[in-house]
Amino acid sequence: MAQEADSARVLKSVEITTRRAEKEVVSTAPIHRYDEEELRRQGVTSVADAVHRLPGVTLRDYGGAGGLKTVSVRGFGAGHTAVIYDGATLSDAQSGQIDLQRYSTDNVGQLSLVVGDNEDIFIPARAAASAASLTIASVAEDWEPMLVAQMRGGSWDYVNPFLKGGIQLSENAYGWVLGEFTHADNDYPFTLRNGTLVTKERRHNTRMNSGHGEVNLTWRPWSRATLKSKVYYYDNSRRLPGPVIYYNDVSNESLRERNAFAQSQLRASLSANVSLMAIAKFNFAYSGYADVNGKYPNGKLDQRYWQREWYGSACALWSPSRPWALDYSVDYSYANLSSNLVSNNRPWRHSLLQSATARYRASRITAMARLLLSVYDNGAHTGDAAKDATRLSPSASVSVQPWREQNLFLRASFKEIFRMPTFNEAYFDHYGSADVLPETTSQYNLGITYSTPAWGCLSAATVTVDGYYNHIKDMIVAVPYNMFVWRITNLGKARIFGIDATLNASVTPARLHTIDLTANYSYQRAQPRTDPTMSDWMKQVAYIPLNSGSLALSWENPWVNVSVNATGVSSRYTTNNNLPDTRIDGYMEFGARLWRLFPIRGHTLEARVDVLNLGNKQYEVVARYPMPGRSWQATLRFTL
User: Between the chain's N and C termini, which has fewer beta carbons within 10 Å?
Assistant: First the structure.
């Protein structure tokens, strides 16, 4: 009778999470995760900052609060990294790159990077169609009334208010909204060196104003189904300082960006063995670039672009027996691009992706295999269209625990994938080429992971070491056609091999005192391997450092929590030829912060102070775009 009574009861869903280190150990492919608490402990100030601290990641950062920030993994370009926000993949058909500065950590519940494919098979086909995937998940809902009010301010007139509120609308529905605004002048100082002449300068034409808002709804139509919907809007108006050129710091460029999308995701369990997922999304993006300069007709260059995408996905997961799980996913999207340019081709693309995946999970072994079928149909209303493409891409991964009593795992993975040229690469005026072929990539990984048992004051310690080899065929690059016009073409092959190592440790030296250490190191050797007679043969690929790493140390205590971090990369080159005058010096940047939580009548007030670039190190991530020196941020966050 007791069992019958319990079975008639509808309970709220419970989300069970484990420490990031444990998932890194058992995963069949490299995976790195931050949860909300770890982001706070390590003093992460932005999504780009968090990703930059992960092994094997190369960040492109043009400086300042509004500077473009894109990420590439293990030598692949930014277009090979999928960014997934609350279950649906973000897209930019024009450039293929997602700007991470649009997404703040103030509402991030979990951030994870997967290299290749791991054993999480219940995902859309598009999420599996990239060499790596970065997943951003909002803070988990607890279905209670909630209000978060935050104000952050800092150097160079940086102001960032944030507001989030949620309420239970009915027994089966919960809604929440958020809004934030960011203003920054970004006119930070830097030192300009020209031979023996050293001058103090400031960045000019750098002001930015951006806003971001969301409306979210969670509805449970029945006990085993959840529908999550989101409406998102982003608007950024910024001036572009341009590269630093000797004796010429004039810039009159500006960029206006707008992005709006609406998405819904339905997850349902039809039985203990069958689950379904469906996603629908519409995305709109606008970018307007202007340059007031007398060399243009009418004294101004005005370029505007509009892109739209309709996307749908359906996934079915079946577990015929305890160790086996099978997934079939099919995705379809239609994207187009228009502009005010005379050469406006108005290109469009139909994409059909299908994946079939099998996973076997026993007590000491987990294995996964997937086949991804990609079909792309390209067209343009005027001019030549990009080539159509159809490709079958396999991937597989396995994790083995040799000894049951030891938390030691060996893993291996393989993935083949390819990337279609973006609309810019295929159609952009005096730049794109409709004849360019897709990039084909192959990636191999061998790794060992180990987690120690608790011993004394050491509560956890995890070590992962992965060696990898990547191969790129038909690499898409821009080469000069003449002094003024560059063209997109396929140059041939590139080879990347390297090592990623991570360490996570937690020590409790006394009651209410916890010390956490996170460190990683990466070695990347990325070589063009097209033709031995070419000047770039076996040199280092542009902007990829040979060595990089980071370290974060935090101390939580009853008084004031403290954390420090360091991030560094070795020297890089701006071209594949690696000429001495194209070398960018390496750097090591340090940061520190203090924070504390104050309970106030059942509510929480968090006070935090960050000092960035503590040593006031001047460095560049992208050539001629100096990064900010020492700066500060202060944050007050009240949670009701």
Answer: N
